[in-house]
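Fill in residues.
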């Protein structure tokens, strides 16, 4: 089994939109591979719950660190 890693980076005023943008970038790099785990680094300027909710939604509720 091969482990594949992809990253995404996005910023802006809205944490949920930034999180979604970063996930979409990473998923595009993964191609058809499903997301099995998300590791998120977020600015303290964002509402963490909004970021977490956006990442969970965009990854199909993959485990999140």
């Amino acid at each position: 089994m091969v482990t594949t890693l992809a990253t995404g980076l996005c910023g802006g005023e809205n944490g949920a939109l930034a999180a979604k943008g970063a996930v979409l970038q990473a998923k595009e790099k993964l191609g058809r591979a499903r997301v099995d785990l998300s590791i998120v680094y977020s600015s303290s300027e964002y509402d963490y719950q909004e970021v977490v909710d956006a990442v969970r939604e965009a990854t199909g509720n993959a485990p999140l660190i």
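DSSP finds two helices and no strands in the chain.
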